[in-house]
């Protein structure tokens, strides 16, 4: 089984699709871009999403205080760093007992974060060269251009602990129930 995070939850429709398909994590993007939402909206959506599903806040080069406030508000359980953040900032978040997903670029490098993530872009649907990703003992999250068509090959090539999808499971900018069902089933399938 591979854990699966669905990112870029923006609307009640998206929250409903999450509840009906049961991924392992749901993500809210606080950074600029087409998936960005405000903290108030994240809090409303958190209340709509199944309480058993942890939520992740995606930040790009944000201040520590903003991220701690988002966790303290109850909107998110994890912080995902998706910019050029330092290991010092990862440590500061962990000192606040906040688990961290650290997006380190297109190639794996060591981090003290709970998860190391590789991605080709920022929710743009760009795909990585999977066969170039080095194996790691860290908990690895694979993101970038994953969709129902390429997911199985991505998992078989990279063997990530978690996969992270956003634009590849959307239709007209909203999460698509059929696509989500397909990717959650694929991820949770025993290999
Ligand atoms: O989705 C965004 O708008 C975004 C903005 C800034 C930083 C990260 C962002 N998204 C992250 O990128 C992955 C992969 O997205 P995709 O599947 O390639 O569309 C997404 O899951 C978020 O973690």
UniProtKB/TrEMBL annotation:
Q: Name one GO molecular function term.
A: phosphoribosylanthranilate isomerase activity
> What EC number(s) are associated with this protein in UniProt?
5.3.1.24
Please indicate if the UniProt record lists Amino-acid biosynthesis as a keyword: yes
Pathway(s): Amino-acid biosynthesis; L-tryptophan biosynthesis; L-tryptophan from chorismate: step 3/5
Per UniProt, the enzyme's principal EC class comes to isomerase
Domain of life assignment: Bacteria
The record, for CDD domains, names: PRAI
Q: Quote the InterPro entries the UniProt record gives.
A: Aldolase_TIM (IPR013785), PRAI_dom (IPR001240), RibuloseP-bd_barrel (IPR011060), TrpF_fam (IPR044643)
Q: Where is the N-(5'phosphoribosyl) anthranilate isomerase (PRAI) domain?
A: 4-184
According to its UniProt record, which reaction does this protein catalyse? Answer: N-(5-phospho-beta-D-ribosyl)anthranilate = 1-(2-carboxyphenylamino)-1-deoxy-D-ribulose 5-phosphate
The keyword Transmembrane helix belongs to this UniProt entry's keyword annotation? no
Regions annotated as coiled coil: none
Concerning Pfam families, the annotation shows:
PRAI
Family annotation (HAMAP family):
PRAI (MF_00135)
* Protein name stated in the entry: N-(5'-phosphoribosyl)anthranilate isomerase
Q: Which species is this UniProt entry from?
A: Secundilactobacillus oryzae JCM 18671
Q: What is the lineage of its organism?
A: Bacteria, Bacillati, Bacillota, Bacilli, Lactobacillales
Q: Source gene?
A: trpF
């Amino acid at each position: 089984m591979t854990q699966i995070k669905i990112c870029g939850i923006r609307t009640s429709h998206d929250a409903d699709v999450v509840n009906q398909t049961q991924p392992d994590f749901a993500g809210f993007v606080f950074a600029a871009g087409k998936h960005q939402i405000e903290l108030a909206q994240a809090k409303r959506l958190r209340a709509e999403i199944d309480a058993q599903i942890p939520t992740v806040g995606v930040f790009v080069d944000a201040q520590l205080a903003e991220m701690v406030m988002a966790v303290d508000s109850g909107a998110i359980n994890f912080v995902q760093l998706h910019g050029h953040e330092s290991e010092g900032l990862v440590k500061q978040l962990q000192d606040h007992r906040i688990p961290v997903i650290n997006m380190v670029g297109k190639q794996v490098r060591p981090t003290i974060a709970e998860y190391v993530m590789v991605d080709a872009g920022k929710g743009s649907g760009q795909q990585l060269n999977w066969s170039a990703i080095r194996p790691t003992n860290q908990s690895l999250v694979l993101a970038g251009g994953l969709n129902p068509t390429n997911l199985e090959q991505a998992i078989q090539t990279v063997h990530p602990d978690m996969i992270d999808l956003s634009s590849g499971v959307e239709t007209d900018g909203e999460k698509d129930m059929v696509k989500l069902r397909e990717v959650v089933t694929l991820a949770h399938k025993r290999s």
